Amino acid sequence: VVCISGKIPGYTKATIKEFLADYNVTVIDNVTKKLDYLITEETNTSKVKKAEQYNINIISFNNFMEIIENE
């Protein structure tokens, strides 16, 4: 389960959701304790701060893609 925060250069959130669905990754809109990763290219947003409070992994889209393509 992931959440996307901010803009990912070259993609829309809808495109990313569709793409990640092929990998059985669920995309949700809010940061919750159920989240596995927060995908973002930004560092100082409210979602990043909340993810830090919950000890959720914060990762760039490219790094996340490397992880799921290697599994």
Key terms:
3 helices, 18% strand, 71 residues, single chain
Word description of this protein:
The protein has helices at 13-21, 46-53, 61-69; strands spanning 2-5, 27-28, 37-40, 57-59. It is globular. It is built from three helices and four strands, in the order E-H-E-E-H-E-H. It starts with a strand and ends with a helix. It has 71 residues and is an alpha/beta fold. The longest helix has 9 residues, at 13-21. Strands 2-1-3-4 form a four-stranded parallel β-sheet.
Give a short summary of the structure.
By secondary structure, this protein is of the alpha/beta class. It is 37% helix and 18% strand.
Number of helices: 3
Structural class, please?
alpha/beta
Order of helices and strands: EHEEHEH
Strand content of the residues, in percent?
15-25%
**Rg over alpha carbons:** 11 Å
Task: State the end-to-end distance.
Answer: 15 Å
Question: How many β-strand stretches?
Answer: 4
List the helices and strands and how they pair.
Blueprint: E1 2-5, H1 13-21, E2 27-28, E3 37-40, H2 46-53, E4 57-59, H3 61-69
Parallel strand pairs: 1-2, 1-3, 3-4
